[in-house]
Amino acid sequence: MTLHHKLTEARARLVAAGIAADEAAVDVDLYARTILEWDRTRLIVEQQSPAPPALEPCFSEWIARREQREPTAYIVGKREFWGLEFAVSRSVLIPRPESEFIVEEAVERLRNVAAPRIADVGTGSGCIAVSIAHELPTAHVTATDISGEALEVARANADRLGVSDRITFVETSYLDGVDGTFDAVVSNPPYVKDEHKALVQRAVVKYEPHVALFGGADGLNGLRSVLDGAGRRLVPGGWVIMEFGDGQDDDVRELVGRYPRY
Fold first, then answer.
1. Which candidate in 15, 16, 17, 129 could, as Cys together with 67 as Cys, close a disulfide (CB 3.0–4.6 Å)?
2. Alpha helices of the chain — where are they, by DSSP H?
3. Is residue 75 within 8 Å of residue 62, measured between CB atoms?
4. Is the pLDDT of residue 158 over 80?
């Protein structure tokens, strides 16, 4: 069987499982390149050659997992964010492009601050904390998470990307027990309303950690906790930079308005 034939069969399996054809094509090529440690050019050049034995059994196992709608990031164990490669596991939320706006804003606000101190609340994979530390070489980040397993992933990412000496990881809920003050508190807190669980993609609900997704009846529990902690720890003129859901603008404005500190 040629490599082309093998990849074509795999794409057909994913499409039959309900995955869009273009997404299936991207997934199959990524799996093959990852397993074989090839670049795209070699994968194209080798299409008419026999399928390399090194593909199996991993390739078929990954296709079977994807047929069950397991996210590709968990299957290959990594995801790109802010131009950096982050290891991920089912202990952490998969980094998403929209969260890069948090990094962008933090870097812009703190670029001219000498040795800025930042708290990343609910760090997960560490993608936000590590990206900020990578962009601001004099910054120190305190990254918190309630999950010890998530912090293991974040620490490994910080080590691999060369910023572990400037990130302190703390296993706690939000900023509970964290000392010191910060020039900025950043966070991608859980903000999906509990009642909207049925509207969230099935793969997200099935595979990603609910503690990082769902924010209570109004979706604002996580944001409240971030604001509560930040209000006692921000320096004068400090920033709170948070992600929240589409359509939550008015609710978030009203919520922030209840905090005189802001």
1. 17
2. 3-16, 21-36, 40-45, 58-67, 72-76, 100-110, 127-135, 148-160, 202-207, 221-231, 249-257
3. yes
4. yes
Cα dihedral across residues 43, 96, 176, 221: positive or negative: negative
Give the tokens for residue 59: 């390739």
Lowest mean pLDDT among 143-152, 197-206, 235-244, 248-257: 197-206
Place of tokens 């890069």: 100
Token pair belonging to 141 = 């980040």
This prediction's pTM: 0.94
Residue 191 tokens, joined: 């903000």
Measure the CA–CA gap between 256 and 250, rounded to whole angstroms.
10
What digits encode the pLDDT tens for the residues 99-129?
A: 999 999 999 999 999 999 999 999 999 999 9
